[in-house]
Amino acid sequence: MKNINGGILRKIKSLPTLVFQVNHPTKQLTTNTQHDNKMFCQNISFDDLANDVDHQETTCEYETHHFFQESNTMEENKLLCNFEYKCPPGGKDAIILYTTSLRGIRKTFEDCNMIRFLLESFRVVYYERDVSIHIEYREELWRILGGRIVPPRLFIKGRDIGRANEVAGLHEQGILKKLLHDIPLISSNFPCNGCCGIRFVLCLSCHGCCKIIDQDQGKVTNGYRIRCPKCNENGLIKCPVCS
């Protein structure tokens, strides 16, 4: 028996040293993760990641801006509904201001300048219609409002905003700025080259005298003069550049 046990011991001692290796799960997971990270970094560069982040930020900014723009438009439409709809010709999506350049009544003249100043301070595009220069504007204003209304009178997108006192009150409350939302802005700081901002020029046919020679009658009567059909009562026509 001793001989058998001794033989077994000698057999064991003659074997190479046994090394028991245990693969730890955490160590294996860490090794695989490091390997996967190396592969990920090799496939995607930092420039690609930066571009992707920039794209996401730009998309987010656009969506936020679009959301606030829609909110402002809805608020503007809601405010405009509080005013009576009396749309001047060509004023459905524009600002129309009826004024007078006559200084006979000082308050009327100053009220016109006040509304004009407010609109210019917001740098929005508006169309001024001076009833003292063009009598058709006066008839147009009276027809819209159903009476002999004295300017100034402001219309925004077909809505009757009111007179100078009403416009000034809206401005003090911060409502006027909201009503002007979505109105195109002035693209140039310089007045029109054709009329210098007056919006009318001398008639090119009669040169302001309101009379022209009738060519048919002129052959017989040495130039029979008739009323010029192109200009208004002051010998003016709308500026061909900015009208």
Automatic annotation (TrEMBL):
<dbReference type="Pfam" id="PF23733">
    <property type="entry name" value="GRXCR1-2_C"/>
</dbReference>
<feature type="domain" description="Glutaredoxin">
    <location>
        <begin position="95"/>
        <end position="160"/>
    </location>
</feature>
<dbReference type="InterPro" id="IPR036249">
    <property type="entry name" value="Thioredoxin-like_sf"/>
</dbReference>
<protein>
    <recommendedName>
        <fullName>Glutaredoxin domain-containing protein</fullName>
    </recommendedName>
</protein>
<dbReference type="InterPro" id="IPR002109">
    <property type="entry name" value="Glutaredoxin"/>
</dbReference>
<dbReference type="Pfam" id="PF00462">
    <property type="entry name" value="Glutaredoxin"/>
</dbReference>
